Amino acid sequence: MAGSAIKSLRAKWRIWASCWVTAAVAAALLVAVGPDSAGAGGKRRWITDDQGRALVLNGLNTASSAKSEPNGMPWIKAADVQREKQQLGSNFVRFLIQWRNVEPRPGAYDETYLDQVAERVHWYGARGYHVMLDMHQDVYGPKTKGNGAPAWATQTDGLLVAEQDQWELKYIEPGTVRAFDHFWGTRQSSRNLRARYAAAWAHVAGRFRDDPAVIGYDLMNEPWGGSVQGAAFEAGPLAALYRRTLAAIREVDHDSWIFVEPEAVSTNWGLPSGLPYLKDPRGDGDRARIAYAPHVYPLPLDLGNGYSGDAKAWVRRTLGSWRTQTERTARRLNAPVVIGEYGIDATLPGALTYVAAVRRLAEEMGAGTAYWSNDPGPWSPWERTKRGGLRATRLLPVLDRPTPLAIAGEPDTYEWDATSRTLKVSWRGARRGVRGGTELYLPERHFPRGGRVTGGDVISWDAKSRILVVRSGPGKHRVRITPVPDTD
Ligand code: IDC
Hints:
Largest sheet: 9 strands, parallel
Helix content: 25-40%
Strand content: 15-25%
Strand order of the largest sheet: 7-6-5-4-3-2-10-9-8
CATH topology of the largest domain: TIM Barrel
CATH class of the largest domain: Alpha Beta
Shape: globular
Bound molecules: ligand IDC
Oligomer: single chain
Number of helices: 12
CATH architecture of the largest domain: Alpha-Beta Barrel
Structural class: alpha/beta
Distance between the termini: 58 Å
CATH superfamily of the largest domain: Glycosidases
Protein backbone atom coordinates (compact mmCIF):
# COMPACT_ATOMS: atom_id res chain seq x y z
CA MET A 1 0.00 0.00 0.00
CA ALA A 2 1.25 3.49 -0.82
CA GLY A 3 2.47 5.61 2.09
CA SER A 4 -0.28 8.19 1.60
CA ALA A 5 -2.95 5.49 1.69
CA ILE A 6 -1.55 4.22 4.97
CA LYS A 7 -1.55 7.76 6.32
CA SER A 8 -5.18 8.30 5.37
CA LEU A 9 -6.14 4.97 6.90
CA ARG A 10 -4.39 5.89 10.12
CA ALA A 11 -5.99 9.32 10.06
CA LYS A 12 -9.40 7.68 9.71
CA TRP A 13 -8.61 5.42 12.64
CA ARG A 14 -7.49 8.33 14.74
CA ILE A 15 -10.68 10.24 14.00
CA TRP A 16 -12.63 7.19 14.97
CA ALA A 17 -10.54 6.70 18.07
CA SER A 18 -10.99 10.28 19.16
CA CYS A 19 -14.80 10.04 18.75
CA TRP A 20 -14.56 7.02 20.95
CA VAL A 21 -12.56 8.69 23.61
CA THR A 22 -15.25 11.38 23.79
CA ALA A 23 -18.03 8.81 23.98
CA ALA A 24 -16.14 6.84 26.57
CA VAL A 25 -15.54 9.84 28.76
CA ALA A 26 -19.28 10.44 28.68
CA ALA A 27 -19.78 6.78 29.54
CA ALA A 28 -17.32 7.07 32.40
CA LEU A 29 -19.22 10.00 33.83
CA LEU A 30 -22.50 8.14 33.59
CA VAL A 31 -21.03 5.02 35.11
CA ALA A 32 -19.46 7.09 37.89
CA VAL A 33 -22.85 8.34 39.05
CA GLY A 34 -24.58 4.96 38.71
CA PRO A 35 -24.47 2.22 41.34
CA ASP A 36 -21.17 0.43 41.06
CA SER A 37 -22.27 -2.84 42.47
CA ALA A 38 -25.60 -4.56 42.64
CA GLY A 39 -26.11 -7.93 44.21
CA ALA A 40 -22.36 -8.33 44.66
CA GLY A 41 -20.51 -8.73 47.89
CA GLY A 42 -17.25 -7.45 46.45
CA LYS A 43 -16.11 -11.08 46.39
CA ARG A 44 -14.64 -12.47 43.17
CA ARG A 45 -16.98 -14.90 41.43
CA TRP A 46 -15.87 -18.18 39.88
CA ILE A 47 -17.27 -20.46 37.27
CA THR A 48 -17.34 -23.91 38.86
CA ASP A 49 -17.29 -27.44 37.49
CA ASP A 50 -19.64 -30.28 38.47
CA GLN A 51 -17.50 -30.92 41.56
CA GLY A 52 -17.90 -27.34 42.70
CA ARG A 53 -14.26 -26.50 41.91
CA ALA A 54 -13.32 -23.04 40.66
CA LEU A 55 -12.35 -23.30 37.00
CA VAL A 56 -9.41 -21.53 35.44
CA LEU A 57 -10.48 -21.65 31.80
CA ASN A 58 -7.74 -21.46 29.20
CA GLY A 59 -7.87 -22.11 25.50
CA LEU A 60 -8.41 -20.76 22.03
CA ASN A 61 -11.11 -19.47 19.75
CA THR A 62 -12.36 -21.99 17.17
CA ALA A 63 -12.41 -20.66 14.53
CA SER A 64 -12.34 -17.55 12.40
CA SER A 65 -12.52 -19.81 9.33
CA ALA A 66 -16.11 -20.74 10.25
CA LYS A 67 -17.28 -17.20 9.47
CA SER A 68 -16.79 -17.49 5.74
CA GLU A 69 -17.82 -21.13 5.27
CA PRO A 70 -21.34 -21.43 3.89
CA ASN A 71 -22.02 -24.30 6.31
CA GLY A 72 -20.49 -22.34 9.20
CA MET A 73 -18.06 -25.11 10.17
CA PRO A 74 -14.55 -24.41 11.48
CA TRP A 75 -11.47 -25.86 9.76
CA ILE A 76 -10.74 -28.41 12.53
CA LYS A 77 -10.98 -32.19 12.61
CA ALA A 78 -11.05 -34.23 15.83
CA ALA A 79 -7.29 -34.76 15.45
CA ASP A 80 -6.72 -31.00 15.67
CA VAL A 81 -8.54 -30.88 19.00
CA GLN A 82 -6.36 -33.74 20.17
CA ARG A 83 -3.25 -31.88 19.01
CA GLU A 84 -4.30 -28.79 20.92
CA LYS A 85 -4.93 -30.80 24.08
CA GLN A 86 -1.50 -32.40 23.83
CA GLN A 87 0.42 -29.29 22.92
CA LEU A 88 -1.34 -26.68 25.05
CA GLY A 89 -3.30 -28.54 27.71
CA SER A 90 -6.36 -26.35 27.04
CA ASN A 91 -9.53 -26.95 29.03
CA PHE A 92 -11.62 -24.33 27.24
CA VAL A 93 -12.75 -23.31 23.79
CA ARG A 94 -14.74 -20.34 22.57
CA PHE A 95 -16.57 -21.97 19.71
CA LEU A 96 -18.00 -19.71 17.01
CA ILE A 97 -21.54 -20.18 15.82
CA GLN A 98 -23.57 -17.83 13.64
CA TRP A 99 -27.14 -16.66 13.60
CA ARG A 100 -27.32 -17.05 9.79
CA ASN A 101 -26.63 -20.78 10.17
CA VAL A 102 -28.87 -21.30 13.21
CA GLU A 103 -31.86 -19.58 11.61
CA PRO A 104 -31.44 -19.48 7.82
CA ARG A 105 -35.11 -18.45 7.40
CA PRO A 106 -37.20 -16.60 9.96
CA GLY A 107 -38.35 -19.07 12.60
CA ALA A 108 -36.77 -22.06 10.79
CA TYR A 109 -33.82 -23.56 12.62
CA ASP A 110 -31.24 -25.68 10.83
CA GLU A 111 -30.96 -28.89 12.86
CA THR A 112 -28.30 -30.27 10.54
CA TYR A 113 -26.10 -27.30 11.38
CA LEU A 114 -26.71 -27.76 15.10
CA ASP A 115 -25.92 -31.49 14.77
CA GLN A 116 -22.61 -30.59 13.15
CA VAL A 117 -21.88 -28.12 15.94
CA ALA A 118 -22.80 -30.80 18.50
CA GLU A 119 -20.41 -33.26 16.85
CA ARG A 120 -17.55 -30.77 17.20
CA VAL A 121 -18.55 -29.86 20.74
CA HIS A 122 -18.27 -33.58 21.46
CA TRP A 123 -14.69 -33.64 20.11
CA TYR A 124 -13.86 -31.07 22.77
CA GLY A 125 -16.03 -32.53 25.53
CA ALA A 126 -14.50 -35.98 25.13
CA ARG A 127 -11.11 -34.40 25.92
CA GLY A 128 -12.26 -32.60 29.04
CA TYR A 129 -12.86 -29.19 27.52
CA HIS A 130 -15.54 -26.74 28.58
CA VAL A 131 -17.17 -25.20 25.52
CA MET A 132 -18.57 -21.70 25.32
CA LEU A 133 -20.78 -21.17 22.28
CA ASP A 134 -20.17 -17.70 20.86
CA MET A 135 -22.83 -16.19 18.58
CA HIS A 136 -20.32 -14.44 16.42
CA GLN A 137 -20.77 -11.41 14.23
CA ASP A 138 -18.35 -8.92 12.75
CA VAL A 139 -19.80 -5.97 10.85
CA TYR A 140 -23.33 -7.41 11.29
CA GLY A 141 -23.62 -9.98 8.48
CA PRO A 142 -22.55 -11.08 4.99
CA LYS A 143 -24.91 -8.56 3.37
CA THR A 144 -22.90 -5.76 5.05
CA LYS A 145 -19.56 -7.38 4.11
CA GLY A 146 -19.26 -9.02 7.52
CA ASN A 147 -20.46 -12.24 9.08
CA GLY A 148 -23.08 -13.45 11.52
CA ALA A 149 -26.58 -12.21 10.78
CA PRO A 150 -28.78 -13.84 8.14
CA ALA A 151 -29.66 -11.90 4.98
CA TRP A 152 -33.35 -11.86 5.95
CA ALA A 153 -32.43 -9.96 9.14
CA THR A 154 -30.28 -7.40 7.32
CA GLN A 155 -31.99 -4.18 6.27
CA THR A 156 -29.70 -1.51 4.84
CA ASP A 157 -32.35 0.61 3.03
CA GLY A 158 -30.05 0.67 0.01
CA LEU A 159 -27.15 2.29 1.87
CA LEU A 160 -23.75 1.01 0.90
CA VAL A 161 -20.88 -0.65 2.69
CA ALA A 162 -17.56 0.14 1.04
CA GLU A 163 -14.76 -2.43 1.37
CA GLN A 164 -11.99 -1.29 3.73
CA ASP A 165 -8.40 -2.42 4.15
CA GLN A 166 -8.91 -2.51 7.88
CA TRP A 167 -12.03 -4.63 8.42
CA GLU A 168 -13.20 -2.77 11.55
CA LEU A 169 -13.74 0.39 9.51
CA LYS A 170 -16.71 -1.27 7.81
CA TYR A 171 -18.59 -0.77 11.10
CA ILE A 172 -18.93 2.93 10.32
CA GLU A 173 -20.12 2.47 6.75
CA PRO A 174 -23.70 3.74 6.27
CA GLY A 175 -25.20 0.36 5.34
CA THR A 176 -23.74 -1.30 8.42
CA VAL A 177 -24.92 1.43 10.77
CA ARG A 178 -28.39 1.21 9.25
CA ALA A 179 -28.55 -2.59 9.58
CA PHE A 180 -27.62 -2.33 13.26
CA ASP A 181 -30.18 0.44 13.82
CA HIS A 182 -32.88 -1.81 12.42
CA PHE A 183 -31.69 -4.69 14.55
CA TRP A 184 -31.70 -2.65 17.77
CA GLY A 185 -35.02 -1.09 16.88
CA THR A 186 -33.56 2.38 17.25
CA ARG A 187 -34.90 3.13 13.79
CA GLN A 188 -38.47 2.31 12.99
CA SER A 189 -38.72 -1.22 11.69
CA SER A 190 -41.58 -3.46 10.69
CA ARG A 191 -39.98 -6.48 12.35
CA ASN A 192 -38.70 -7.14 15.83
CA LEU A 193 -35.35 -8.77 15.09
CA ARG A 194 -34.39 -8.87 18.78
CA ALA A 195 -37.28 -11.21 19.49
CA ARG A 196 -36.04 -13.52 16.72
CA TYR A 197 -32.50 -13.34 18.07
CA ALA A 198 -33.61 -14.26 21.60
CA ALA A 199 -35.75 -17.09 20.26
CA ALA A 200 -32.83 -18.40 18.19
CA TRP A 201 -30.69 -18.45 21.34
CA ALA A 202 -33.40 -20.26 23.28
CA HIS A 203 -33.46 -22.85 20.50
CA VAL A 204 -29.68 -23.31 20.69
CA ALA A 205 -29.85 -23.53 24.50
CA GLY A 206 -32.63 -26.11 24.26
CA ARG A 207 -30.36 -28.16 22.01
CA PHE A 208 -27.29 -27.96 24.30
CA ARG A 209 -28.70 -27.67 27.84
CA ASP A 210 -28.04 -31.36 28.56
CA ASP A 211 -24.61 -31.43 26.96
CA PRO A 212 -22.16 -31.49 29.88
CA ALA A 213 -19.36 -30.12 27.66
CA VAL A 214 -21.19 -26.83 27.10
CA ILE A 215 -20.50 -24.42 29.92
CA GLY A 216 -22.50 -21.58 28.49
CA TYR A 217 -23.43 -19.07 25.85
CA ASP A 218 -21.71 -15.86 24.74
CA LEU A 219 -24.77 -13.89 23.64
CA MET A 220 -23.18 -11.63 21.02
CA ASN A 221 -19.66 -11.07 19.77
CA GLU A 222 -18.51 -7.47 20.05
CA PRO A 223 -21.84 -5.66 20.10
CA TRP A 224 -21.95 -2.46 18.07
CA GLY A 225 -24.69 0.13 18.57
CA GLY A 226 -24.97 1.56 15.05
CA SER A 227 -25.95 5.20 15.54
CA VAL A 228 -26.49 4.83 19.32
CA GLN A 229 -23.19 4.60 21.12
CA GLY A 230 -21.48 4.41 24.47
CA ALA A 231 -23.46 4.15 27.70
CA ALA A 232 -26.66 5.07 25.84
CA PHE A 233 -26.24 1.90 23.82
CA GLU A 234 -25.02 -0.41 26.57
CA ALA A 235 -27.58 0.61 29.17
CA GLY A 236 -30.28 0.93 26.51
CA PRO A 237 -30.80 -1.45 23.59
CA LEU A 238 -27.92 -3.78 24.47
CA ALA A 239 -29.07 -4.37 28.06
CA ALA A 240 -32.64 -4.79 26.80
CA LEU A 241 -31.52 -7.47 24.32
CA TYR A 242 -29.53 -9.24 27.01
CA ARG A 243 -32.51 -9.22 29.41
CA ARG A 244 -34.81 -10.56 26.74
CA THR A 245 -32.35 -13.26 25.69
CA LEU A 246 -31.57 -14.22 29.29
CA ALA A 247 -35.27 -14.68 29.97
CA ALA A 248 -35.72 -16.77 26.81
CA ILE A 249 -32.72 -18.99 27.57
CA ARG A 250 -33.71 -19.49 31.21
CA GLU A 251 -37.11 -20.80 30.05
CA VAL A 252 -35.30 -23.83 28.67
CA ASP A 253 -31.91 -23.90 30.39
CA HIS A 254 -31.71 -23.10 34.06
CA ASP A 255 -28.06 -23.82 34.72
CA SER A 256 -25.68 -22.87 31.91
CA TRP A 257 -23.56 -19.75 32.25
CA ILE A 258 -24.56 -16.77 30.19
CA PHE A 259 -21.65 -14.64 29.02
CA VAL A 260 -22.21 -11.02 28.17
CA GLU A 261 -19.90 -8.71 26.28
CA PRO A 262 -19.70 -4.94 26.51
CA GLU A 263 -19.63 -2.57 23.55
CA ALA A 264 -16.31 -3.62 22.05
CA VAL A 265 -14.94 -0.52 20.42
CA SER A 266 -14.37 1.31 23.69
CA THR A 267 -13.76 -1.51 26.17
CA ASN A 268 -11.29 -3.40 23.93
CA TRP A 269 -9.09 -0.33 24.36
CA GLY A 270 -9.41 -0.14 28.15
CA LEU A 271 -12.22 2.41 28.31
CA PRO A 272 -15.19 2.02 30.68
CA SER A 273 -18.32 0.02 29.99
CA GLY A 274 -21.80 1.30 30.79
CA LEU A 275 -23.31 -2.18 30.92
CA PRO A 276 -25.73 -2.30 33.88
CA TYR A 277 -26.41 -5.14 36.32
CA LEU A 278 -28.45 -7.87 34.67
CA LYS A 279 -30.63 -10.00 36.88
CA ASP A 280 -30.42 -13.72 36.29
CA PRO A 281 -33.88 -15.29 36.51
CA ARG A 282 -32.27 -18.27 38.32
CA GLY A 283 -31.39 -16.04 41.30
CA ASP A 284 -29.12 -13.36 42.72
CA GLY A 285 -25.77 -13.50 44.49
CA ASP A 286 -24.10 -16.90 44.24
CA ARG A 287 -27.11 -18.36 42.42
CA ALA A 288 -26.65 -16.10 39.42
CA ARG A 289 -24.73 -17.47 36.45
CA ILE A 290 -23.91 -14.44 34.39
CA ALA A 291 -20.28 -14.05 33.39
CA TYR A 292 -18.52 -11.10 31.82
CA ALA A 293 -16.57 -11.86 28.64
CA PRO A 294 -14.84 -8.72 27.33
CA HIS A 295 -12.01 -8.66 24.78
CA VAL A 296 -8.69 -6.88 25.02
CA TYR A 297 -7.12 -5.34 21.90
CA PRO A 298 -5.10 -2.21 22.75
CA LEU A 299 -5.45 0.46 20.07
CA PRO A 300 -1.74 0.73 19.19
CA LEU A 301 -1.81 -2.96 18.26
CA ASP A 302 -4.96 -2.41 16.15
CA LEU A 303 -2.94 0.26 14.34
CA GLY A 304 -0.37 -2.38 13.40
CA ASN A 305 2.32 -1.70 15.99
CA GLY A 306 4.16 -4.40 17.86
CA TYR A 307 4.74 -4.40 21.62
CA SER A 308 7.85 -2.27 21.24
CA GLY A 309 9.04 1.31 20.99
CA ASP A 310 6.58 4.07 21.92
CA ALA A 311 3.63 1.75 21.46
CA LYS A 312 4.80 -0.48 24.31
CA ALA A 313 4.21 2.08 27.05
CA TRP A 314 0.82 2.93 25.58
CA VAL A 315 -0.15 -0.74 25.46
CA ARG A 316 1.00 -1.24 29.05
CA ARG A 317 -1.13 1.66 30.20
CA THR A 318 -4.04 0.27 28.22
CA LEU A 319 -3.69 -3.10 29.95
CA GLY A 320 -3.69 -1.33 33.32
CA SER A 321 -6.85 0.65 32.61
CA TRP A 322 -8.42 -2.37 30.94
CA ARG A 323 -7.99 -4.31 34.16
CA THR A 324 -9.40 -1.51 36.32
CA GLN A 325 -12.43 -1.08 34.09
CA THR A 326 -13.03 -4.79 33.63
CA GLU A 327 -12.93 -5.47 37.36
CA ARG A 328 -15.23 -2.58 37.99
CA THR A 329 -17.80 -3.79 35.46
CA ALA A 330 -17.49 -7.38 36.68
CA ARG A 331 -18.22 -6.23 40.25
CA ARG A 332 -21.24 -4.32 39.05
CA LEU A 333 -22.45 -7.40 37.17
CA ASN A 334 -21.55 -9.78 40.04
CA ALA A 335 -19.81 -11.80 37.34
CA PRO A 336 -16.66 -13.86 36.91
CA VAL A 337 -14.43 -12.74 34.02
CA VAL A 338 -13.39 -14.65 30.92
CA ILE A 339 -11.28 -12.82 28.35
CA GLY A 340 -13.12 -14.02 25.28
CA GLU A 341 -10.47 -12.74 22.86
CA TYR A 342 -6.93 -11.49 23.01
CA GLY A 343 -4.36 -11.90 20.29
CA ILE A 344 -1.70 -10.41 18.09
CA ASP A 345 0.26 -11.15 14.96
CA ALA A 346 2.98 -13.12 16.71
CA THR A 347 5.59 -12.15 14.12
CA LEU A 348 5.50 -8.49 15.27
CA PRO A 349 8.28 -7.24 17.55
CA GLY A 350 7.53 -7.92 21.22
CA ALA A 351 4.41 -9.94 20.39
CA LEU A 352 5.40 -12.90 22.55
CA THR A 353 6.07 -10.65 25.53
CA TYR A 354 2.66 -9.09 25.00
CA VAL A 355 0.89 -12.46 25.00
CA ALA A 356 2.71 -13.48 28.18
CA ALA A 357 1.71 -10.14 29.74
CA VAL A 358 -1.97 -10.77 29.00
CA ARG A 359 -1.75 -14.26 30.48
CA ARG A 360 -0.11 -12.79 33.58
CA LEU A 361 -2.85 -10.18 33.79
CA ALA A 362 -5.47 -12.93 33.58
CA GLU A 363 -3.73 -14.79 36.43
CA GLU A 364 -3.81 -11.67 38.57
CA MET A 365 -7.48 -11.15 37.83
CA GLY A 366 -8.51 -14.79 38.17
CA ALA A 367 -9.88 -14.54 34.63
CA GLY A 368 -10.21 -17.23 31.99
CA THR A 369 -8.73 -16.69 28.53
CA ALA A 370 -9.47 -17.66 24.95
CA TYR A 371 -6.71 -16.67 22.53
CA TRP A 372 -7.72 -15.40 19.08
CA SER A 373 -7.45 -17.78 17.33
CA ASN A 374 -6.60 -21.36 16.42
CA ASP A 375 -6.66 -20.66 12.64
CA PRO A 376 -3.22 -21.57 11.29
CA GLY A 377 -1.21 -18.45 10.44
CA PRO A 378 0.81 -15.60 11.94
CA TRP A 379 -1.63 -15.04 14.85
CA SER A 380 -1.81 -18.71 15.71
CA PRO A 381 0.18 -21.27 17.66
CA TRP A 382 0.31 -23.25 14.39
CA GLU A 383 1.10 -22.55 10.76
CA ARG A 384 0.67 -24.57 7.60
CA THR A 385 3.65 -26.32 6.10
CA LYS A 386 4.16 -26.41 2.31
CA ARG A 387 2.83 -29.96 2.32
CA GLY A 388 -0.35 -28.94 4.12
CA GLY A 389 0.58 -30.16 7.59
CA LEU A 390 0.75 -28.05 10.72
CA ARG A 391 3.77 -26.99 12.69
CA ALA A 392 4.13 -24.96 15.87
CA THR A 393 4.89 -21.24 15.61
CA ARG A 394 6.97 -19.22 18.10
CA LEU A 395 3.74 -18.46 19.92
CA LEU A 396 2.97 -22.01 20.99
CA PRO A 397 5.49 -22.19 23.86
CA VAL A 398 4.11 -18.91 25.24
CA LEU A 399 0.55 -20.19 25.29
CA ASP A 400 1.69 -23.52 26.74
CA ARG A 401 1.89 -22.10 30.24
CA PRO A 402 1.74 -23.89 33.59
CA THR A 403 -1.56 -23.12 35.29
CA PRO A 404 -4.14 -24.45 37.69
CA LEU A 405 -7.16 -25.76 35.76
CA ALA A 406 -9.53 -26.38 38.67
CA ILE A 407 -9.13 -25.24 42.27
CA ALA A 408 -10.93 -27.19 45.00
CA GLY A 409 -11.97 -24.29 47.18
CA GLU A 410 -11.94 -20.51 47.13
CA PRO A 411 -8.97 -19.43 45.00
CA ASP A 412 -6.71 -16.84 46.51
CA THR A 413 -3.85 -16.27 44.05
CA TYR A 414 -2.05 -18.27 41.39
CA GLU A 415 0.93 -17.42 39.28
CA TRP A 416 3.45 -19.00 36.95
CA ASP A 417 6.81 -17.42 37.71
CA ALA A 418 8.94 -18.22 34.66
CA THR A 419 12.14 -16.88 36.22
CA SER A 420 12.11 -19.18 39.23
CA ARG A 421 10.20 -21.83 37.27
CA THR A 422 7.62 -22.04 40.04
CA LEU A 423 3.88 -22.43 39.84
CA LYS A 424 2.39 -20.94 43.00
CA VAL A 425 -1.24 -21.58 43.90
CA SER A 426 -3.08 -20.67 47.05
CA TRP A 427 -6.68 -21.24 48.04
CA ARG A 428 -8.98 -21.76 50.97
CA GLY A 429 -10.29 -25.32 51.12
CA ALA A 430 -13.52 -26.92 52.30
CA ARG A 431 -15.95 -24.69 50.56
CA ARG A 432 -19.39 -26.22 50.88
CA GLY A 433 -20.17 -28.70 48.15
CA VAL A 434 -16.63 -28.90 46.74
CA ARG A 435 -15.26 -32.34 45.87
CA GLY A 436 -11.94 -33.58 44.50
CA GLY A 437 -8.47 -32.09 44.45
CA THR A 438 -6.86 -29.08 42.82
CA GLU A 439 -5.79 -29.81 39.23
CA LEU A 440 -2.63 -28.28 37.84
CA TYR A 441 -1.34 -28.41 34.27
CA LEU A 442 2.44 -28.86 34.12
CA PRO A 443 3.61 -28.74 30.49
CA GLU A 444 6.47 -30.98 29.48
CA ARG A 445 8.57 -28.03 28.27
CA HIS A 446 8.78 -26.70 31.85
CA PHE A 447 8.27 -29.89 33.86
CA PRO A 448 9.90 -32.65 31.75
CA ARG A 449 10.11 -34.99 34.75
CA GLY A 450 6.98 -33.76 36.50
CA GLY A 451 6.52 -31.41 39.43
CA ARG A 452 7.87 -31.36 42.96
CA VAL A 453 5.24 -30.07 45.37
CA THR A 454 5.89 -28.15 48.55
CA GLY A 455 3.05 -27.28 50.91
CA GLY A 456 0.63 -29.95 49.65
CA ASP A 457 0.03 -33.66 49.05
CA VAL A 458 -0.07 -35.18 45.60
CA ILE A 459 -3.12 -37.30 44.85
CA SER A 460 -2.10 -38.22 41.32
CA TRP A 461 0.16 -37.33 38.42
CA ASP A 462 -0.58 -38.23 34.83
CA ALA A 463 2.50 -37.75 32.68
CA LYS A 464 0.43 -38.00 29.51
CA SER A 465 -2.12 -35.27 30.20
CA ARG A 466 0.48 -33.48 32.37
CA ILE A 467 -2.09 -33.08 35.14
CA LEU A 468 -1.06 -33.11 38.76
CA VAL A 469 -3.81 -33.34 41.38
CA VAL A 470 -3.12 -31.90 44.83
CA ARG A 471 -5.23 -32.67 47.89
CA SER A 472 -7.52 -30.02 49.26
CA GLY A 473 -9.26 -29.87 52.64
CA PRO A 474 -10.25 -27.41 55.33
CA GLY A 475 -8.13 -24.31 55.79
CA LYS A 476 -5.60 -22.41 53.81
CA HIS A 477 -3.47 -24.07 51.13
CA ARG A 478 -0.35 -22.60 49.66
CA VAL A 479 1.46 -24.88 47.25
CA ARG A 480 4.52 -24.35 45.11
CA ILE A 481 5.46 -26.64 42.27
CA THR A 482 8.93 -26.69 40.78
CA PRO A 483 10.33 -29.03 38.12
CA VAL A 484 11.64 -32.37 39.39
CA PRO A 485 15.41 -32.04 38.86
CA ASP A 486 17.24 -34.47 36.58
CA THR A 487 19.16 -35.99 39.46
CA ASP A 488 16.10 -37.03 41.52
C1 IDC B 1 -10.83 -11.23 12.46
C2 IDC B 1 -10.09 -12.29 11.66
C3 IDC B 1 -9.89 -11.76 10.24
C4 IDC B 1 -11.23 -11.35 9.64
C5 IDC B 1 -11.92 -10.37 10.54
C6 IDC B 1 -13.31 -9.99 10.07
O1 IDC B 1 -8.85 -12.57 12.28
O2 IDC B 1 -9.28 -12.77 9.45
O3 IDC B 1 -11.02 -10.75 8.38
O4 IDC B 1 -12.04 -10.93 11.84
O5 IDC B 1 -14.21 -11.07 10.18
C7 IDC B 1 -12.14 -9.08 16.77
C8 IDC B 1 -13.25 -9.96 16.29
C9 IDC B 1 -12.69 -11.14 15.53
C10 IDC B 1 -11.51 -10.70 14.66
C11 IDC B 1 -10.38 -10.36 15.64
C12 IDC B 1 -9.04 -10.06 14.97
O6 IDC B 1 -14.13 -10.38 17.31
O7 IDC B 1 -13.73 -11.68 14.76
O8 IDC B 1 -11.11 -11.71 13.76
N1 IDC B 1 -10.84 -9.22 16.43
O9 IDC B 1 -9.12 -8.95 14.13
N2 IDC B 1 -12.25 -8.00 17.52
C13 IDC B 1 -11.04 -7.42 17.64
C14 IDC B 1 -10.11 -8.19 16.96
